[in-house]
């Protein structure tokens, strides 16, 4: 008896999850978070869209998994920004430092280093920062739509500058500074970008 191999979509197996992640990275880098769809990712991975939902649930969760992010901004950003509006900048800087100084920060530093020399990685990191962190911050703070893009990009410039200085270039005394010292120094700048006059 001869077995006939069926063509078409691959059934679920050990490699399916990794195939979906590889396809997700390609589609997210090519189309961006907003332009990517579960259907397009499933098509790239040659699996049924239901398998993508089975393994990852939502597009947000798939994106985080494809970025190897151990922490979920959907949980962290609202916590960091809850409280007095005029202290949001400090809380946001404190959150970033707490994540980057934790064991989870090792993957983030590697991703940042890679993004500085690889356009594909830079696109993925940009999508992550814009869609998963900055948009959430804008929503939490209720920032006006016409200013939101500029404000979020200015916040990103401050946070990215801190990350590069402290974790990649390791410029002293910032590299070894107590996190609260940095929160007090940088938080007001971030606050101005979030809510102050531009």
Question: Topology of this protein?
Answer:
Elements (H helix, E strand, L loop, with lengths): L15 H20 L2 H8 L3 H8 L2 H8 L6 H9 L6 H13 L4 H11 L3 H23 L3 H24 L10 H17 L3
User: Largest beta sheet, briefly?
Assistant: none
Question: Based on CA inertia axes, which overall geometry fits?
Answer: globular
Task: Tell how many strands the DSSP assignment holds.
Answer: 0
Question: What is the CATH H-level superfamily of the largest domain?
Answer: Tetracycline Repressor, domain 2
Name the average pLDDT: 85
Distance between the termini: 75 Å
* Helix and strand composition category: mainly alpha
CATH class of the largest domain: Mainly Alpha
Structural domain count: 2
H/E element order:
HHHHHHHHHH
Beta-strand content bin: under 5%
Oligomeric category: single chain
> Which CATH architecture of the largest domain would you pick?
Orthogonal Bundle
Note poorly predicted spans.
1-12
At the fold tier of CATH, the topology name of the largest domain is Tetracycline Repressor, domain 2
Any overview of this molecule?
The protein has 198 residues and is mostly helical. The protein has two domains: 51 residues, Orthogonal Bundle (Arc Repressor Mutant, subunit A); 123 residues, Tetracycline Repressor, domain 2. It is built from ten helices and no strands. The longest helix is centred in the last third of the chain and has 24 residues.
């Amino acid at each position: 008896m001869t077995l006939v191999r069926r063509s078409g979509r691959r059934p679920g197996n050990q490699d399916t999850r990794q195939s979906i992640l590889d396809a997700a990275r390609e589609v997210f880098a090519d189309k961006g978070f907003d332009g990517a769809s579960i259907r397009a990712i499933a098509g790239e991975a040659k699996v049924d869209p239901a398998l993508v939902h089975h393994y990852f649930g939502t597009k947000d969760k798939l994106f985080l998994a494809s970025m190897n992010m151990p922490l979920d901004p959907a949980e962290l950003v609202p916590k960091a920004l809850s409280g007095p509006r005029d202290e949001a900048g400090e809380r946001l800087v404190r959150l970033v430092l707490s994540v980057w100084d934790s064991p989870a920060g090792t993957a983030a530093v590697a991703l940042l280093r890679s993004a500085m020399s690889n356009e594909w990685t830079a696109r993925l990191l940009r999508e992550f920062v814009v869609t998963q962190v900055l948009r959430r911050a804008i929503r939490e703070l209720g920032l006006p739509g016409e200013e939101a893009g500029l404000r979020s990009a200015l916040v990103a410039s401050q946070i990215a500058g801190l990350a590069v200085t402290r974790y990649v270039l390791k410029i002293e005394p910032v590299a070894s500074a107590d996190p609260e010292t940095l929160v007090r120094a940088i938080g007001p700048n971030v606050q101005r970008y979030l809510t102050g006059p531009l």
